[in-house]
């Protein structure tokens, strides 16, 4: 899942600060809503893997809000791993960030037993085969009864829900014909195909969706 150099400039904005951290405005905007979702749908205890931790803002916010979960951040990009470490600091329930390409078939063989796997704002930046691999490997990496939560912008029955989403989806497709918004019904099918039960589909702010799925106990 190497970061595509062809992405539009607004696809993944991260601004460096004076403390070795990257700051993503999008992560600042949606952290509160995702935290509320986690309070409702995340397990109370156990180990949580965040796929694609980005700047580290999210995992730090989530670990602070849910202190009884042990958080494992992961990130494919070296500079962003450094930012995750700078953000997480001494937060006691955040493990050292690991390098993980979640679109690499077979990663669940060495990373598994998680009670929660969370991915935020990635599926529209990778291809459909990569997205399906991520979901299939996440299903294998979950402990029995564990939950997978996917958050981001999605098409609804093949259609964008706003002019802004339509433009952003088009800009992604123009940059790389293999990426762009995934369809909500397709994602549900992919979850079912790997043996996960759909728990909820939650409408989130700014036309985003969250899919919550559970592995059989």
Structure description:
By secondary structure, the protein is of the alpha/beta class. It has a single domain, classed as Vaccinia Virus protein VP39 (Rossmann fold), CATH 3.40.50.150. Helix content is 34%, strand content 25%. It is built from 6 helices and 9 strands. The strands form 2 sheets. Strands 3, 4, 5, 6, 7, 8 and 9 form a 7-stranded mixed β-sheet that branches. The longest helix is centred in the N-terminal third of the chain and has 17 residues, at 25-41. It is globular and about 45 Å long. The protein starts with 14 loop residues before the first strand and ends with a strand. Mean pLDDT is 94; it is low at 1-5.
Quick structural summary:
The chain has 217 residues and is an alpha/beta fold. It has helices spanning 25-41, 57-65, 78-88, 128-141, 163-175, 184-193, and strands at 15-16, 22-23, 46-51, 69-73, 114-120, 142-155, 182-183, 196-203, 208-215. The protein has one domain (15-215): Rossmann fold, CATH 3.40.50.
Strands, helices and their partners?
Blueprint: E1 15-16, E2 22-23, H1 25-41, E3 46-51, H2 57-65, E4 69-73, H3 78-88, E5 114-120, H4 128-141, E6 142-155, H5 163-175, E7 182-183, H6 184-193, E8 196-203, E9 208-215
For the record, the count of structural domains works out to 1
Major beta-sheet overview: 7 strands, mixed
| Proportion in β-strands | 15-25%
What would you call the structural class? alpha/beta
The CATH architecture classification is: 3-Layer(aba) Sandwich
Radius of gyration: 16 Å
Distance between the termini: 30 Å
**Low-confidence runs (pLDDT<50, min 5 residues)?**
1-5
**CATH superfamily (homologous) name:** Vaccinia Virus protein VP39
